[in-house]
Design brief:
The protein is an all-alpha fold. The protein is built from 6 helices and no strands. The relative contact order is 0.13.
């Protein structure tokens, strides 16, 4: 058994690649930059805050992974087991934060940037893994939520609503999943 295969993964989910170089948590202040049109008031961006927490969890995830590998190589089985359990817990937390970020509209460019990175991860899953039909449908819904949120944040911040013809063809308002969530009071 190769050292890299020491951590068991959930069989229904693809293994998680290491975060891309440069993916760091957004600045700790979870407030919208002064460039946002809120009458000068800085309002918190929940996606930016999720990105900050996700960055901390990713750092801990990598540390747990490295500890598990080191303990495995040293044949310290109790330490290996603890590190592997911590790794699983952090994997679950990352997935929870990622999922929450797909249901939360961004209110800042930093929040939208977090969602761009998550959208790239979701898009990679379509080509990197053999997804079942149900998994592909769920990932498609996640990607749609992320893209509508990104678009909404950019439009709100810039005041631009894009080319009407493109909007009506590619991202029709009636398909915006956040409208359904708002109507449901969620």
């Amino acid at each position: 058994m190769a050292v890299e295969q020491h951590i068991t993964r959930t069989p229904t989910k693809p293994s998680r690649p290491r975060a891309p170089t440069g993916f760091r948590p957004v600045p700790p202040a979870a407030t919208v930059a002064a460039s946002t049109p809120h009458g000068g008031a800085c309002l918190p961006c929940p996606v930016q805050a999720l990105g900050t927490e996700l960055g901390r969890v990713i750092d801990a995830y990598h540390a747990a992974d490295e500890a598990a590998v080191a303990a495995y190589k040293a044949q310290q089985w109790a330490d290996h087991s603890r590190a592997r359990d911590r790794h699983r817990l952090l994997t679950n937390r990352m997935e929870n934060l990622e999922d929450t970020a797909t249901y939360t509209p961004a209110a800042s460019l930093e929040g939208a940037l977090v969602q761009v990175m998550l959208a790239a991860m979701v898009a990679d899953q379509f080509t990197a893994f053999a997804l079942t039909e149900d998994q592909a449908e769920e990932q498609g819904k996640r990607l749609s939520r992320l893209l509508y949120s990104i678009r909404g944040a950019i439009e709100a911040i810039t005041g631009s609503h894009g080319a009407e013809a493109l909007s009506e063809f590619y991202m029709r308002a009636e398909f915006n999943p956040f409208l359904a969530l708002a109507e449901a009071g969620a």
